Amino acid sequence: MSNKTWLIAFAIMLCDLTAHAQTEVQRALGIEEMFRLADENSISIQSYRTGQEAADQALKAAKAQRLPDVSTSLSFSYLGDGRLWDRDFSNATNIPMPHYGNNFALEAQQVIYAGGAINSGIAIAELQQQIARLDLHKNRQEIRFLLTGYYLNLYKLTNQEQVIKKNLELTEQVILNMEAREREGTVLKNDITRYELQRETLKLQLAQVQDACKIMNHQLVTTLHLPEDTRIIPDTTLLNQDISVLTENDWQQMAEQNNANLQLAELGTRISQQQVKLERSERLPKIALVAAEHLDGPITIEVPVLDNNFNYWYVGIGIKYNISSLFKNNKKLKHAKLNARRSQEQHELAQEQTENAVQAGYVNFLTSFTDLRTQEKSVELADENYAVTSNRYQNDLALLTDMLDASNMKLTADLGLVNARINLLYNYYKMKYLTHTL
User: How confident is residue 23, by pLDDT bands cut at 50, 70 and 90?
Assistant: First the structure.
């Protein structure tokens, strides 16, 4: 390949890298702003919001059952001549008929008593409306907690990247010092090789962490529906925020008041109770006010037929009772009662599960504080050990293996401290998720 061809290929590659670097947009993103973007852009939340709107319309439809039923009909017809026979079908006679007929009817009915069926239907629609709102709230909490996990993982990986880079720089400095000592004849090439091996290991860890950052960043960007070239930068002050250390009883009370699962289970119990009332209403009579207006012509009930319009109207009270419900509705009513009992048991189960989840989350939350204090002490000791070992090694009082052990201990302690801080914050947000106050 000629030099000109190499130059063109290099220029194209450089342009591609430059274009990629220019299209990537960094965006500093805090937790609260992330929640706001999720509320605006999440398809999952939008679907539940649409479900809430549908429940609102269902309630309006249920209340509309209280309005009167009004119907009207209008028809025009052509009537042929009639035929009249004796009972033995003899002596047929042709009966002339007016050929054009019309019919108009206007009927209205207002239910005044339906055994509680309409009220129960409205009550069920109202409860389903509340369920739709709680489903939206629950889904919003789930999306927020999911995003919080992505966000904190990205934060953890970003900090791990910084720690590895810092240790990589430290390793590079040690290698430079050892190369200088090798030229003086005080260090063997084999000693440098060991540190070069550690440097390559750190480079591999750095590449793995950077790749994991890309994956986590993509999941965040996709969920928030941000431009694909967005690179999210976590809030650097996040770990400095105050964390409320409440008692377990306080968290349990918050869960009892705000947890959507408990409220949904309670609403399920109330709906099943209304279903029992609805089934019972089938055994009761239905009473309605009725009114009608009719205009018919010609009058065909007379012989000969009268070529006139006949108008009549009426008002009254109609009573309807389904006798078959006495022997058909028993099984449905028993089924509704069993569902009501099952809903109550599910409510009690939800209470147990929520109480256990909050208790376990609170224990893990407290453990996070202990872990953080332990990791802070570990970092302090690892830094002291590394400083002492490095000084001794510079004065030929420690072996290279001692330096490697001290360096690995320092890296492990630094990463452990970062993870402990993130885990504390994660467990705090998990407690807020369990109480659905996120």
Answer: low
Residue with tokens 């509704």: 336
Is-contact 45 38, C-beta < 8 A?
yes
CA distances from 261 to 51, 146, 268, 273, 347 (A): 17, 17, 10, 19, 9
Q: How many domains does the chain have?
A: 2
- The runs of H, that is alpha helices, within 282-399 are 325-394
Residues 256 and 327 grouped into a single domain: yes
Enclosing domain of residue 79:
70-113+288-320
User: Do residues 239 and 385 both lie within one domain?
Assistant: yes
Distances (CA, A) of 423 to 101, 104, 318: 85, 77, 70
Angle at alpha carbon of residue 158, lines to 156 and 159, rounded to 5°: 65
Contact 210, 179 (CB under 8 A): no
pLDDT (average), residues 58-65: 90
CB 97 within 8 A of CB 104: no
The number of CA neighbours under 13 Å toward the Cβ of 200 is 6
Sheet of 310-320: strand order equals: 69-78, 100-113, 286-297, 310-320
Of 41, 110, 436, nearest to 258 (Cα)?
436
| Cis ω for the linkage preceding 96 (within 30 of 0) | no
Q: Classify residue 287 as left (phi > 0), alpha (psi -120 to 50) or beta.
A: beta
**Residue 22: burial class (beta carbons within 10 Å; 0-12, 13-18, 19+):** exposed
Among 303, 320, 337, the domain boundary falls at 320
C-alpha 75: how far from its chain's center?
54
Same domain, 206 and 86: no
Note the pTM of the prediction, 2 decimals. Answer: 0.77
8 within a domain of the structure (yes/no): no
Q: Would the pLDDT of 199 be above 50?
A: yes
Are residues 160 and 35 part of one domain? yes
- 157 and 208: one domain? yes
In the chain, the amino acid numbered 319 is I
DSSP state of 68: P
Residue 11 lies in a domain: no
Find the range with the poorest average confidence among 98-102, 149-153, 400-404, 414-418: 400-404
Q: Tell which residue, 246, 248, 267, 249, has the closest CA to residue 350.
A: 267
